[in-house]
Amino acid sequence: MCSEALMLNLVTMEEAYLKWEARALDVDRTLSLAELYLHMPDGFDLRDTSRKLINGESTGPIGNDDNKVTLEQNTLSATIKIADLKLPNDYPTDLKLGNVRRIKQISVSLPALIGPYQDIQAVLEYTGNLQLSNGCKAIAISRGVNDSGQFQLDFNDSKYLPFEGIPIEDQEGLTLQFPNANEKQKALLNSLTDIILHIRYTIRDNG
Asked: Domain named Tc toxin complex TcA C-terminal TcB-binding: which ranges (predicted)?
């Protein structure tokens, strides 16, 4: 009887494993924060707002509690609520593709005038309480062109990627921070026209 029960448990575990290990759908999504901010109820122009804050023409914050741009202690910050990206609308549930949708990886592009041999200093951080693997709540942005915050992006890495596992309907936010906004990054930020998020996420059925 014990051996039969053990075999049954092993079969059940194998079935559960095969269900979860079924290949997920991979989705690439490119989002403009300038466009998202502009079309929100408390809409504002990202480029104009950033310039006014940096040049002392406004004190901010601009926007609402969830989606805003601020300048505090020489750091310019842009925050977006993940749920307000409306990623679930890309593939509605009536398509029956799967009801577990989680972020795999995020990169950032920053359209701005960058001089030769000039780098960017910025940090993209998840501000929610979801427990992520150590070192996966933030990335440093230095190149600003589809920047993953890694020297080499490897989806076969045995470690979790930054932001991996966050539900695409998460009610918390992502914040991009630019230190030294009134000093060495001022000219660069005055030329910043947008913040582009490249979000890769997966869709799978939880069985």
From this structure: 74-128, 135-202
* Residue 57 belongs to a domain: yes
> Which residues, in sequence order, are bridge partners of residue 122?
141
Residue 103 has pLDDT above 70, yes or no: yes
- Model confidence at 2, pLDDT cuts 50, 70, 90, reads low
Residues forming beta bridges with residue 79, ordered by sequence position:
68, 175
Which residue do the tokens 């933030």 mark?
Answer: 138
Residue 107 in any domain: the answer is yes
Specify which residues 199 forms β-bridges with. Answer: 29, 106
d(CA 110, CA 142) in angstroms, rounded, equals 10
Torsion sign (Cα): 121, 168, 133, 77: positive
pLDDT digits (tens, 9 = 90+) for 23-50: 899 999 999 999 999 999 989 999 999 9
Give the whole-angstrom CA distance, residue 9 versus residue 129.
Answer: 35
Closest CA to 147 of 172, 181, 115, 112: 112
Token pair recorded at residue 126:
């998840």
Whose structure tokens read 């409306």?
Answer: 86
- Whether 10 maps to a domain, the answer reads no
Mean pLDDT over the full length of the chain:
91
CA angle 46, 48, 49 (to 5 degrees): 65
Record the pTM.
0.87
Q: Which amino acid is at 147?
A: D
**Residue 169 lies inside a defined structural domain of this protein:** yes
